[in-house]
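Hey team,

Filing this mostly as a record. A colleague (T.K.) asked me to run one chain through the structure pipeline before their review meeting, and I want the input and output archived in the tracker in case anyone asks later how it was produced. No errors, nothing strange. Just documentation.

Input sequence:
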Amino acid sequence: MPDPIVPKGIARVTLETVAAPEQILFVLQPNLSMLAFTSAVETLRIANQLTGQNLYSWAPLSEDGSNVRCSNGIEIGVERAIGDTSQGASIFVCSGVEPEKATSTRVSNWCRQQWRLGRTVGGLCTGAYTLAKAGILADRTFTLHWENIPAFREHFPDLDPVEQLYAIDDRILTCGGGSAATDLFLKLIYDRHGPELARAVLNMCLHSVQRSETDRQQSSTAASIGSRNTKLVSIISYFKDHLEDSISLDDITKELGISRRQLERLFRTHLNTTPKRYLQEMRLQHARILLGETNMAVVDVAIACGYESAGNFSKRFREAFGISPHKFSSGHG
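Output structure:
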């Protein structure tokens, strides 16, 4: 058990003395998101500081006890390798970019064992990959970073992550990473120690509002495009939901009751582009994610992104990113 970490500070919240700290173990994987990890740890640290108590203890672990390098290149020291845990401990797998490569059989087997021992097991950012390999996500509500959800669904077609900030389903706790880790741990503090401490921690984190579990990770379509034009938002939402289908702009205009000229004007006025170009950019960005995070063949990615031929897809991909999809895929495989 590490030494208690109870920093001194001016702000104070009076809380009934706890008998023992709640133990949180963070399993760090190569290329983890440092933001997600530190957002979680700092939330716990501030809770200790505000109360002057050792409410929480935490320890970073790794598969073999070696230090782990984050996706930003910074190396984090760990206390020990994965192994035996105490009753009541909670385990969070901290992952990040290229989660498929970072996830190991040993860690996923260990997580499954911890789950069977009655521990709470969670995932930060893309930690859900390890939990999926552990076989403990079936029929569970869970999430991971929105950018990795399409590739995750290709890897685990029987699992369906939700695109929300965090998810709590019995002893499975997951979040989308980044500052969503703060929201998840604020919720845990609220449930364990009440609203006064949770509000005080939120203020210390300069977190303007405690977001709810079901809040979306990404900005709404209207916010992301900087327009609340309902017809434009509807069109783009339709694009998102039908990237792999053959999309007829004429059918869309009929459904919305507007002319083709009005459709073109909407995109030109609000986005300075054309509907076809906007749709193609969406499809190519989706393809980039699939090529970078799955082992899908280029031809399969082309089909999944609405291209009728791999040749046309390869040409458009090279034009957009300056590299062929084959080379891009091999560089991330």
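Quick notes for T.K.: The radius of gyration is 23 Å. Residues 65 and 80 are 5 Å apart (CA to CA).
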